[in-house]
Amino acid sequence: MNRVLTIAGSDSSGGAGIQADLKTLAALGVYGMSAIAALTAQNTLGVHGFVEVAPEFVAQQIDAVVTDIGVDAVKTGMLANAAIVEVVAAKVREHALPNLVVDPVIIAKHGRRMLTEDAVGVLKQQLLPLTTVVTPNLPEAEALTGFSDLRDAARALHGLGARNVVIKGGHCDGAPIDLLFDGERFVKFPGERLASPNTHGTGCVFASAIAARLAQGHSVVDAVALAKAFVTEAIRNGLALGHGIGPVNPLSEPRT
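The structure assignment produced for this chain is given below.
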């Protein structure tokens, strides 16, 4: 069975983070494992607080999984601070972990900062050069590169070492077209803009689905296309829970 490790934050409401990742991985027929980098107190109304896990314990979680069960792909989400980013990069190098998908969670949907400013530089310098696919939305791409143009930002992120860059189009006007750049060509992934207000966890589900498909042996282009289709259905079947932004539903159509 294909194995995917997610290194991210725990979402107490179950809509994003580790919880959304593991739901996605299970729905796509891969074995999901986790190393928790932060614990958040959040719900559909926002992130009310979080506690960062000691970097040494993040490393211990990764070692425990890798040395026993093994890993076919890795997905990172909320990493919180520079020390955690450093230890994750070190463990990726130490264990030669394959198919690293980085969702650079910088600011939560409700506006709460989830990655310290100094950690952004560490992510750019140490983690992106190890990355198979990085999946920022447009604000995250701009925060990482200074460019608001999708193509310019994609080129800059590739220049920082990411082998493939997917900039998500949800924050752009018009249809949400995701843009992939592999250093040589741009590939567009069209999509439909859905009216659902229940979009909590979208980025987590998308990146986890890419990691699952890479673990299963798909090419990057196919993995992104399949993940785009999967997250679209998760949004379409989003759950009207809570009093704010409800979660997407990666379990709406279990498939392998």
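Interim note for the steering committee: The chain has eight helices and nine strands. The domain at 3-236 is CATH 3.40.1190.20 (UDP-N-acetylmuramoyl-L-alanine:D-glutamate ligase).
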